[in-house]
Every structure is written in C-alpha cells, then in structure tokens.
Amino acid sequence: MFKYNKQIAITVIASSMMLLSGCGLFNTDQATKEIDPPQDEALTEDGKSLDTEGKSGAESSSKDITGEEAEKTTASQLFLIDKSGFVVPYTMNLPETDSIAKQSLEYLVEGGPVSNMLPNGFRAVLPQDTQVLGVNIKDGTAIADFSKEFNNYKKEDEAKILQAITWTLTQFDSVETVKIWVNGHEQTEMPVNSTPIPDGASRMDGINHDSSEVVDITNTQPLTVYYMAEADEQQYFVPVTKRIDNKETDPIVSAVEELVKGPALSSGLLNDFQDGVKLLSAPKYEDGKVTLDFNDAIYGSFDEKQKIISSSVLQSLVLTLTEQQGIDSVAITVNGKADLINENGEKLTEPVTRPSKVNTGSF
C-alpha cells in the first residue's frame, strides 16, 4: 500500500480549492544502442501521446510572455532542491510541447531555461550544460538519456539528482520506473558515487530519507509523509520518507502517527499538529476514500467550539495519504461528527482530494 497512487484526481472540490491550492504555498532495446528518435520521446507504451495531465494534473493555460502575445503553457511538477537541501515539488507553467517529459527534465538543468523562474533559495539539480537527448517511455518505464555533462555533479548531490529525476518523471501516469542512460548507454549505477540502479528507480525508493530513529533498517519499510517548510514567509510542503517497523500493519495509522510526531528537530521542517492528536477509531476505507476520526486536539490552536481545522494540517494529511495506493480522498470527522470547517469558514461537507498541483506559483 506504499506505492504511489495512480488515480490522483485532477480537480479539487470547490469547498477545498482555496484551502489546498492557494493557502501558504508557492504562487505560481539495448543498452549500447541509441534511444529512439524524438518522435518517441513522449509516447506511452501503447504509442499514444503522453498524458500531460498525469499525476501532476497538468493543464494548459495562457501566460503573458512578451506583453504582446500569449503563449500556451502546461503545468508540470518539477523537483528542485531548496535551501535546506530537500528535494521539493514545485509546479511551474512550461511552454506547451508534445514532449513534456523531456521538457520537464530540461527544466531541471542548472543554467537552463528554469534559471529565471526559480523561487528564492531553490536551485536546479542537473549539472550545467547537460542535454536531455531523449525520453523514451515503454511498458511503464521511462528511459532518460543524458549527454556526458550529466556526470559532472558532486557525489553528495547524487541521491538528490536521482530522486528529482525519478519523481519528476513519475508524475505522469504512464511512468512507474525510471532508467538512466548517458550518451545512449544504460547506467546500472549512478556515475559518480555508484548508487545502484540495476532495475531503474521508482517512488518506492523514497525521497529525502530520514532514518535517524532507526536502529535496524532491515526490519523496516518506507513511508512517505509531507511536512511543512517555510521560505520568505511562505509555506510549502516537503515529502520525507521515514522508516517504520515491519510489524506495523496499517500504513494509514502509521502515516498519521508520523505526522503527529513531526519531523526530526534537526531537519528544520515544521509541524502544525498539536500534542495529543489521536485517532479515536481505526480508519475506514471504501472505494478510494479513507475516513479518519480524531479527538478535539485536531483543532490545534483554534477554539474547538469553532470546529476549524488548520489548512496546513489538512493539506499534510491529504498529501501524505494520497501517496498510498488506492487512496484518492480523505474525509475527517471529530468525535464521530463531520461538521468541520476550513480556515475560510467553508464547511468540509465532502472528502478532500489531492490538489492537482503541489507547491504552485512563486515567491
């Protein structure tokens, strides 16, 4: 149940649109042979055009580029490195193209087209002058072929680079696994620090790993949760892969417990969950919806009589749980009653789906 959810909805219910997309976020076949020509760069395994909406909920829009004419753009989720060294999703409107997977990687190159669009404190992940020679997608695997300049990174950035490439490409529904090639040659390990990737990389491998509290990693399994971070007085969300004991049988409960416990103190990440937050009963799962029943502590600093739930608490729960396979939406009750409202005073009468875009806009 830890596999990335393949059924993310691309729209958010009206009662939670502002809460999830506008509050405290950014505003804005052989190894030695060359990969297939550019016409295959954005194809799914059945030869159809790559779904540009995919997991990121990408959509076309118009943006004033020259002041005289508008250019059609497509929203794509890029994974960049923030000032604390975390790999973070950042949704950006890119020029419309038939090769959005290839284009997304091109916008990860330092000194490339992303340079003038980066939020303060963020940086691109791929070495300067790296060229994306092609992205070929077949049977759920994306082969990303880079020029030799790809090898020019510092070894301490290797894991971040691999994670950024993997999570950027797996935003698309047709991609489960990512393989790295350099100049048409498959890499079974990363070129600088020899991180093994014999079968490719996937979201199952995690991101921003935190195993600080783990004694025996062999008896654990990965679980990705979303914590808050802050830059320029704006909040955004950072996925962190924790390790939980193999004896834990309910990943939904484990995810809630990790969110309540909060991030490692040394991480610099933030936690808006108050002490004492507890689930009063086992989560209920039905047809993609999970229902969580909390005690009054879920209200946090708000007066429990107002029945307000913090937007950051709600977003952390929704982002975290919809990473799990089969979960599309989250409903929250308190003491068995579904009469919560969000910070905008709107009643949460429907389950909340994952926002189509995570960390949108600019600082």
Please characterize this protein's 3D structure:
The protein has 363 residues and is an alpha+beta fold. It has two domains: 31-198, no CATH class; 217-353, no CATH class. 13% of the residues lie in helices and 24% in strands. It has helices spanning 17-21, 100-106, 158-169, 251-261, 311-321; strands at 60-64, 70-81, 87-95, 132-138, 141-146, 177-182, 185-186, 220-231, 234-245, 284-286, 289-294, 329-334, 352-353. Strand 5 (141-146), helix 3 (158-169) and strand 6 (177-182) form a beta-alpha-beta unit. It is globular, with a radius of gyration of 20 Å.
Shape: globular
Largest sheet: 4 strands, mixed
Distance between the termini: 35 Å
Mean pLDDT: 83
Strands, count: 13
How much helical structure, as a percent, in the residues?
A: 10-25%
Low-pLDDT runs: 1-49, 56-69
- The total tally of domains equals 2
**Beta-strand share of residues:** 15-25%
Give the helix/strand class.
alpha+beta
Number of helices: 5
Instruction: Work out the oligomeric state of the chains in this entry.
Output: single chain
Looking across the biggest beta sheet, what order are the strands in? 4-5-6-7
Radius of gyration: 20 Å
| Topology order in helix (H) and strand (E) letters | HEEEHEEHEEEEHEEHEE
Protein name: GerMN domain-containing protein
Signal peptide: 1-21
Region (Disordered): 31-70
InterPro entries: GerMN
